[in-house]
Amino acid sequence: MSGGVTTAADRTPVVPAGRPLVRLAFAAPLSVVAGLLMVTAYPALAWWPMAFPATVLALVVLVGRRFWSAVLIGLLFGLAFFSVNLLFTARYLGPVPWAALSVLESLLTAVFAVPIALAYRWMPRVAPGRLGRLMLLPALVAGLWTLREQIVGSWPYGGFPWGRIGVSQVNGPFAEVASWVGMSGLSFLVVLLCALLVEVVRGGAFRRATGAIPAAVLLIVLLVVPQFPTADAGSLRVGAVQGNGPAGYFDQKTRGAVLNAQLTASAPLFGQRMDVLLWPEGGVDSDPTANASTSAVLQELSRRVDAPLLISAVTERGSELFNSSLLWTPEGQAGSTYDKRHPVPFGEYVPDRAFWEPFAPDLIGLIGREYTPGTASPLIELDGVGVGLAICFDVIYDDVVWDGADAGAEVYMFQTNNADFRGTDENLQQLAFAQMRAIETGRSVVNLSTVGTSQVIAPDGATLDALPIDTAGHMLTDVPLRTGLTPAVVLGPVIKIVLGWGSLAGLLAVGVLAAVRGRRRAAR
């Protein structure tokens, strides 16, 4: 603006808004490159800066796209990213589950590439000035990207929120921001920065120092905002045992082999002082609530270590099976039972079995158990200390972790079993979620696997103790306790609604305004 008059430089980008920046013949392979670059931001490579060029490239190839070309671009990006990121799903079951999950996630990514492309087409018609290009459009694009992550992470069958951009930043300088806005909020801010940079360059704003101010301000905020402080509440001495037993679905094993492996690895802790002994998911391979001999073994172990046990086992109640966390003492089970809230579809149960079984009868037939989702609060009381719980993939779902904090968790104990993914990056990707949960909630996390890797994570995400993969061993750690809720926990559900569904409402409003203005121009 100059003297109240809008100049041509303020109104019109260097490249017309309605025209693609990149021809489809080049945009298609570039979208594949963007997906492959994005993979490198996640473990095992964990090159967190790569999320930025990957996101920029993924956005650039969508600018100016119409419906079907946007679908194609989104599909190619999704296939390149998910087919590599989810390769661990083919470890034992072969290519069918891997291909099915990768294609499903890619199709959802393709569908939700269309709203982003529409935002790039419609917003310049409604707000062609600097405010629209350098503020409103990037915010709308980032919100729609976040909405896509939320849909992929909640639908169908509870979704699969793997590969969120926020998680890729766990080892970077922006991770602490998650304690204020949660993982969805961090995803939004990362994409917002990328979308701002796209507009700065394609609109020619880099030629004027003021044009880069919004991006510079956001970058400074991401760098300087500290982790939200939670209050010190002492410590809890936790023994944690990784038995490295034959806990995989296809492992050759005898009855009680996993239990015996856990007992053997626990023996060095006899005589050590501890407040609780933690075992991983599936560390007990029989139901201690129904098997008297298993219960007696656990009671004796509790007596030997002079501490309660926090174990995990499959429990049966009536006709229903549950993947459960249980507190065991010398007198038997104590307190309430937490049942895994998010059993893995096509892993721990088969939704709509009659429909899916004809497509892969041999694979579907392998899944004989049908776990029922739990409904209990993900918290146990341990001598007055609230312990938040999550079992394996529960950790990737916001509701489980947030509910635990709301219920009074002062520390988290995540029990998992990575035995079906030996030799892959799955355990490291899951660890990234555990680390981000520590930062997001300001709580320590004991992340314990049957086969590794296992870690004790400080409230700031740092590693306090660890066990290597495929190794039997134990940790005995004074784990910090914290009280007080972070803004991410308190406002997380609202932030997700505002960013996700608010952006969709914003897109619809922009579309209506663009249509009205188009009719007016046609009439003139």
Give a structural overview:
By secondary structure, the protein is α/β, with parallel strands linked by helices. The chain has 17 helices and 12 strands. It has helices spanning 8-11, 24-39, 51-60, 67-85, 95-111, 113-126, 130-152, 165-168, 178-202, 213-224, 257-266, 292-305, 353-356, 361-366, 398-406, 426-441, 487-523, and strands spanning 231-242, 276-278, 309-317, 320-329, 332-339, 379-382, 385-391, 411-416, 445-449, 454-457, 463-467, 473-483. The protein has a 6-stranded mixed sheet. It is globular, with a radius of gyration of 25 Å. 51% of the residues are buried.
Spans of at least 5 consecutive residues whose pLDDT stays below 50 are 1-15
Rg over alpha carbons:
25 Å
Elements, N to C (H/E): HHHHHHHHHHEHEHEEEHHEEHEHEEEEH
Oligomerization: single chain
Instruction: Give a quick account of the main beta sheet: strands, pairing sense, barrel closure.
Output: 6 strands, mixed
The coarse silhouette is globular
Q: How would you state the average pLDDT, rounded?
A: 93
The share of residues in helices is: 40-55%
How many strand elements?
Answer: 12
Helix count, DSSP H or I runs of 4 or more residues? 17
